[in-house]
Amino acid sequence: MALFIVRRLIGLVAVLFAITVLVFLIFFATPGVDPTRSLAGRNPTPETIAAVRHQFGLDRSKPMQYLLMMKRLFISRDLVSYGNQALLVVPAIASAAPVTFSLVFGAAVIWIVFSILTGLLAVILKGTIFDPLLMIFALIGISMPVFWLGEVLNLITQDRLHNTFLFSWVPPLGYVPLTQNPWQWFLHLVIPWISLSVLYIGFYARVLRANLLDVENEDYVRTARAKGLSERQVLVKHMLRTSMITFVSLFGLDFGILVGGGALLTEVVFGLPGVGQLTYRSLVSLDLPVIMATVIYGAFFITIASALIDVLYARLDPRIRPA
Amino acid sequence: MLRNRIALSALILFVVIVAVSFAAPLYAHHIAHTDPFASNITGTTVVGGKRVDVLQQGGGTLGIGVVPIGPTWHSNFFLGADNQGRDVAARVLYGGRASLEIGIGSAVLCCFIALILALVAGFFGRFSDTILSRLMDLIWAFPVYLLAISLATVLLTLPNGLQWGFIHVQPASLWVPTIIIALVYVPYVYRPVRGQVLSVREKEYVEAAVAQGASSLRLMFGEILPNVVTTVIVMLPLMIATTVLTEAALSFLSIGVQPPKASWGTIIDDGQALLYSRPWVAIAPGLMILLTVLSLNVLGDGVRDALDPRAKLRLKG
Amino acid sequence: MVRLKRSAMLWAMAVVVAVLATGCGGSSKSKGGTTTPTAAGGKGGTLITLANAAPAGSPDPQVNYTLQEWQWLILTHDGLVGYKRVSGPEGTKKVPDLATAIPKPTDNGKTWTFTLRSGIKFSNGNTVTANDVKATFERLFKIGNSPNAGSWYNVIVGGDACVKTPKTCDLSKGIVVNGDTITFHLTKGDPEFLDKLSVPFAYILPADTPAKNLNLPPAGTGPYKWVQYSPQKQMKIVRNPYFKEWSKDAQPDGLPDSIVQKFGLSVEAEVTQVENGQADWIANADSIPSDRLPELSSKYATQVHITPLTAVYYFAFNVRVPPFNNLKARQAVNYATDRNALVKLYGGTNVAVPTCQILPPNFPGYKPYCPYTVNPGSGKWTGPDMAKAKQLVQQSGTKGASVKVNSDTTEVDKAYGLYFIGLLNKLGYKASPQFLSNDIQYPFIQNSKNKVQFAYSSWFQDYPAASDFLDILLGCGSFHPNSNSSPNIAEFCNKPIQAKMDQAGAMGLTDPVGANNLWAQVDKEVTDQAPWVSMFNPKLLDFTSSRVKGFQFSPQWYFLLAQASVK
């Protein structure tokens, strides 16, 4: 096991290294982007351009530039955005992370609660018309583009029905830190939470339902029933507990992806200054230092999450050879 | 059975959407009488017997602003116009064509690549397996959007598009989003298929074939491929559902299909700018995506039930 | 050059003397707005403004070069002199600010002596001294990346040496301090020197400000001080407790207690917030989409303020690359362009006026001229002449050539590009889009290596002189082959016309009227050569919330934020 974990860690570092090199190469292969021009500001004299080029190490060889960037990112932590020099990359991510975390955490609570409820309900109502109906609703949730749902929710809550009693409580788009005003934090995030969680409610409810039906015929469930436990006890204590393994591992993966900046479109649509928004802006303006940092940040969470899941699976199911 | 009937209706819905999308030129020429790709800024149309501008000058006290005509619910400008004065209904149909071409194309391409890689990994032993797994980690964690943006920029700024040997990619080519999306989802398909390959390989009849001295190539195509192909077929509708959604997301960020070509994603992007004044421009293509993806998901469930009732492969949309 | 767009602001170039030397003189008439300061309300409250993104570049007051941040720096810092803080043409007048009076230069414009007002304090409590003034100008060089240090301020004796070796910059020969008097010695007479002192680069900072790029502007003398500058979230200024009004003209006290600008929303969401009263104003860097204007016009007319700008939106042909190295091909596109359609895309006839020429109306040297219309002669554009256009394309023999139409991915700029793709295809060319992300498009098209064929751009005046348009955008001196800063996007260089431009420039000092007549002729000749398709002259639209009272529009600084009341 220890060997397996060490191997995964080495793999993680290798993957991160490969990604940074690829990002670096892609950036310099893309024409039309000379970072010196933006760093030097408007109307620079040749002296200014040369000074800036030197100051940022852009006159060095490409491998040297790569090393310098990594040093400024990880060791001196003073890497600066090419677009706005007030944007220190490391603090920028540090201040964006809580926003993303707030969004993802709240959405996760909603999607866990509602997907479990929907999944259980579908199993309880199996054989009635409500089971397929619930599953169709779940599928509708999965089938909507997240950004489109967000836009439509904005249209309704910020404009069309904003002046009615239904949505007059909806605050303007944006973010208020939890430490500053917990109530406003909550209000600002309600609609984004709903928008982000719809997809996952549908997906998790379906997974849960399928798992519950899979374990229904297992021996221990039959035994529990034979012992005369109530249907509710069987469902919650025995079936649900077993089914949660897949559920939890999927959750780990999705949570990792989202915390790493995967909620990009939701953040853009709702104007939330999180890691996704930061990633989006840096990509659109081809701002290499920020791209690099957000990519590493995101890749870190994704790789860690998938490694953890592999470990989990390896423990649960010895047949799966760790690769 | 109810499930079968639901799956059948999903199939019918999907076929209708495909048919309608591919009949877009018929709608544009014979019903709407418009070219959905040409700017029509100063054009006019007839509504309720009166000739009106397609892009209407704003009134009010200041007389400023221009709004495209809203849904007429008639053959001309059924869903209204976009900010170029083009017929949204016709564009949604044409957009469906592009979205479906990209969605189906990239899903097929993706499954194909994943299948080949899984066979290689399952067959050529530990080393290639490890390398490929790391490669999948890499693709998994790599930012799709960066690849899409830089590739689009490179293609747009090179004089004649990219050229590798006989492959020639034009900047406006639908192949660009197709290939990018296909690459992104390779790990999704690769992982379960690889598992399948490994488990089939352990099966007795395969081991028997090895014992009889069968070549790896013959084994791969003769014994293992037919077994794992079912898995891939089960995944295909769900993969198309996923790729259609991804295409929409890329185009929404202006890095998928290039204008004046349209896909559902680009129309939502256009409609986003008109969201508060003409919401139908964004809502209509979104509904089309919803219907398409929904029908594919239901269909996917049906195919799985039919072909592979024990499969635990479930993808998210 | 004041460019409103964020993308462009990053990339302005223009080796201009005296940016913003004087304003456009366009009166800030507004049909429905409350432009007159008579409606001014009380003090207090927070003015909440919105912008999609933070001002580009560095926030350091001696480095930043965007109108978006300058609108704030004028409220937190002062120069020795400044522009009068009022709306209308008066706003281009220069008045003494930290100095007691505007001096008359001696020694042929080479020596300027200022006396510092006494008792003015920085927001950190220290009193402003003449040494702070000297240190400010030394810092301008020491910092290394102040954009105009080497082109504007090197006129101060010792400045050129400072440009070469910024670290050891010493201006003690160029700026002589004696008690409260400060004497500038220049290497040559400089009629624009006062203008250079009136912009934020030259605003006085405490002498102990470190000579490196700051991420929050340091203490200043204005009625506000900076407390936050977070490019992801917002910037914020609050009252400076040490401020006492010394000149209403130069630096009036502000009305709101604090001013913030929030970043990160789309302009569509911004409009909705101002409508809902959740925010007060949208920064000019974001332009309001035209489909929202009718709604503003019918429901919020009193909150809309429309001001004409001396600016032009255009597409430049590359006159060195086929097919538009052919004059007839360029003229054909000009004849075919339906400028009404383009005006419509921008927001309609009340916010933009079609044009065929380079210079904007109400500008020195402007004479209405438009050959590319049906029924030419009146100087006005009345309609496209498609027949003539097709005939010219035929004659040019360029039919069938492929053209890449370059624009950016902003909704409305994309729309202009799509219009021209349709038009060029109609004329028999094979047009395809080359729409680049906002931050990439401008540096891309002004890089002459890229051989852009047909590109969208726009130009806002720096100061009212014909050379600011003609010489900077279409002069031989502004075209540099294989360079990444070649502002002459058309790559247009016509020797006889250039000679006339040079002549007109020289005449400007002695015979302004004659010079302007000559510029009018240059404008006409350039227009005949058709290096551009000039589309229209835009008007600026400001949208404020219902609680904002006393909207004032300075030709220099646009909306005067601190003069608006939210109480």
Q: Which class do the helix and strand fractions of chain C yield?
A: alpha+beta
**Poorly predicted regions of chain A:** 318-323
Instruction: Indicate the CATH architecture of the domain at 53-256 in chain C.
Output: 3-Layer(aba) Sandwich
Number of separate helices of chain A: 13
Termini of chain C, distance in Å? 35 Å
Distance between the termini of chain A: 13 Å
- Please report which band the strand proportion of chain A falls in: under 5%, 5-15%, 15-25%, 25-35%, 35-45% or over 45%: under 5%
Q: Helix amount of chain A, in percent?
A: over 70%
CATH fold field value of the domain at 53-256 in chain C: D-Maltodextrin-Binding Protein, domain 2
Detailed description of the structure:
With 323 residues, chain A is mainly α. Chain A contains 13 helices and no strands. Chain A is globular and about 85 Å long. In chain A, 45% of the residues are buried. The model of chain A is unreliable at 318-323 (pLDDT under 50). Chain B is mostly helical. Chain B is built from ten helices and six strands; from the N terminus they run ααββββαααββααααα. Chain B has helices at residues 2-22, 24-31, 88-123, 125-141, 144-157, 175-202, 204-211, 216-252, 264-273, 280-307, and strands spanning 44-47, 50-53, 55-57, 66-68, 162-164, 167-169. Chain B has a two-stranded antiparallel ribbon. In chain B, helix 3 (88-123) runs parallel beside helix 6 (175-202). The radius of gyration of chain B is 24 Å and the shape is elongated. Chain B starts with a helix and ends in a 10-residue tail after the last helix. The model of chain B is unreliable at 311-317 (pLDDT under 50). Chain C has a domain at 53-256: D-Maltodextrin-Binding Protein, domain 2. Chain C is α+β, with helices and mostly antiparallel strands and 567 residues long. In chain C, the strands form five sheets. In chain C, strands 11, 12, 13, 14, 15, 16 and 17 form a seven-stranded mixed sheet that branches. In chain C, helix 8 packs antiparallel against helix 10 (386-396) and helix 9 (339-346) runs antiparallel to helix 11 (411-426). Chains A and B meet through helix 1, helix 6, helix 7, helix 8 and helix 12 of A and helix 1, helix 4, helix 5, helix 8 and helix 9 of B.
